[in-house]
Structure formats: structure tokens, C-alpha cells
Known about the structure:
The protein is mainly α. Helix 3 (43-79) runs antiparallel to helix 4 (85-115). It is built from 6 helices and no strands.
Amino acid sequence: MKKLLFLLLLISPLVFSEDKLLNSPPPPPNPIEVVAEFLNLSDEQVELWLGILDDFKANQWDLINQIEPLEKDLKEILNSESPDPASVGNIVIQIDNLRKEMKLNEETYRENFQLLLNEEQLEKYIMLKSAFKLAPLFPAFQDTHLI
């Protein structure tokens, strides 16, 4: 009897953890697959898009890696007893220029993505972008039972 009880105590965590695995929510969908399915992208379009996406991410990380040491330098200068205004201004301008490059990189990425799309896909993409701008309004329309 003691052996059976001991065995049950050993096995029960496995049973309960397996049950939790079976009842856990499914993992979130892969964003690449969701976009590809929504826009009905061909395999070739997906492959080209992934290349563009990789370039975008690499460029963004390069810019981030340039900004981080400048922000550290700026913090050190500002925490000094008498920060040099010219040095502060110079670093702030450098950081601002790099952030502008990040925005330009993102715009270029989106433009290059759009160039991959046919007319129907582009219409769906533009529709989605418009809906995204309106998304903050959705809760108010839901709360008033208009949608």
C-alpha cells in the first residue's frame, strides 16, 4: 500500500502537468504566416519579403548600436558638474539624425514591401493600414453597440 501511494505521488505531477499542456491555449500564430495568408502572397513573394525584412532589421540594429553609446555619453555629460552645452547639443543632434535614419529605413522597408505586391494585394494592404489608424475608435463603437 505504501509503495502504491508513493508511486501515485511520483506520477501525479506528471499527470497534472500533462493535463495542463493539453488544456493550454495554442501558441500565437506566426506573424509572417498571417500576413502571407491575408495578402495571399506567393512563396516567391514571401521569400523576397523575408530578405527585405532581414535587411530592415539588420539596418535598424546597426543604427541602434550607434545610438546606445551616444545616449550613454550624453548621460555622462549631463551628470557631470558642468555639462558642456556644445557637447550636449552635438550628441543630441547625432542621436536625432540616427533616429531619422531609422524612420527612413522603416519607410524604405515598407515601400519595398509594397513593390512586391500585385494590385489586389496592395489594395488589401492599404485597407488594413487605414483600419489600423481607426483601431483606437473600435472600443467606443463596441461599447455603444454600433459594431
